Amino acid sequence: MTETMEKIKSSESTTKRPSISVFFPAYNDGGTIASMALSAMLTCRRLTDDYEVIVINDGSKDYTPEILDELGRVYPEHVRIVHHKKNRGYGGALKSGFASATKDLVFYTDGDAQYDPHELELLLEKMTPGVDIVNGFKISRSDPLHRLIIGRIYHLTVKFLFGLKISDTDCDFRLIRRSCFEDIELTSNSGTIALELVKKLQDAGFNFVEVPVHHFHRAYGKSQFFNFPRLWRTAVNLLTLWWQLEIRREHKKYQQQRIKERALSGK
User: Which residues contact 107 (CB under 8 A, 6 or more apart)?
Assistant: First the structure.
């Protein structure tokens, strides 16, 4: 990371540092979300002069809301809290986060501390001209055995069904140019939104770069994904998404329409 800082400092005189929006979806993450937000602030402070940290409280039932309200009170210039009165699902939380972001680059990861916000620095180093998305991939997944097996099956299945090119679709540790969202529209409310996001960005022709990142054991709370009771629902969501993206391909029509609109407006 020292090398990254030297590169950034050496180019400050000639290149404007990008502004960064960081957001975390949070659901019952009271034990970890404060450290995640603070780590993101400290990291962004080193990387840019213009940043914001947004936390989407997706109807949490633990003490997450009061922790977030205190963060917003103490750091009003850089921290913004969005409360969902009812749980909208992981997809609903991500859509809310992307819609709330206002800076040039948008970074997101989960609020459960299985990823380290400091490694945003590694992603920013690879966000060079011509790159649109820097996607993390797990060096080693720190999960129980059953989740490792289910996750591997999921990864191989979606890579085959959707023709995905990146190596780790379900690594929610991403840095994306906000302008990319002018050409895609996200609709999923479930955990399959990560798949929808990657597929639509890929089909829109945006360029990906991948960076290895660490993955840690969950220290607080309970995972909402890839547990056995949810397998059937996940399978149904996958098949629905496959029908929409691979058979109907409505998203391609949307992208073409957006390109035409920009051409007509001269942008």
Answer: 20, 21, 22, 23, 120, 123, 174, 175, 176
- Which residues are CB-neighbours of 86 under 8 A, at least 6 positions away? 59
Average pLDDT score over residue span 7-14: 48
Q: What are 225-248's pLDDT values in tens digits?
A: 555 567 778 888 899 999 999 998
Please give the pLDDT value at position 81: 98
| Other CB atoms within 10 A of residue 82 CB | 18
Q: pTM of the full predicted structure? A: 0.87
- In this structure, the number of other CB atoms found within 10 A of the CB of residue 15 comes to 10
Q: Give DSSP secondary structure letters for the chain.
A: -HHHHHHHHHHTTTSPPPPEEEEEEESS-TTTHHHHHHHHHHHHHHH-SSEEEEEEEES-SSSHHHHHHHHHHH-TTTEEEEEESS--HHHHHHHHHHHH--SSEEEEE-TTSSS-GGGHHHHHHH--TT--EEEEEESS--S-HHHHHHHHHHHHHHHHHHT--SS-TT--EEEEEGGGGGS------STTHHHHHHHHHHHTT--EEEEEE------SS---SS-GGGHHHHHHHHHHHHIIIIII-HHHHHHHHHHHHHHHHT-
Task: Report the candidate in 242, 160, 244 with the shortest Cα–Cα distance to residue 152.
Answer: 160
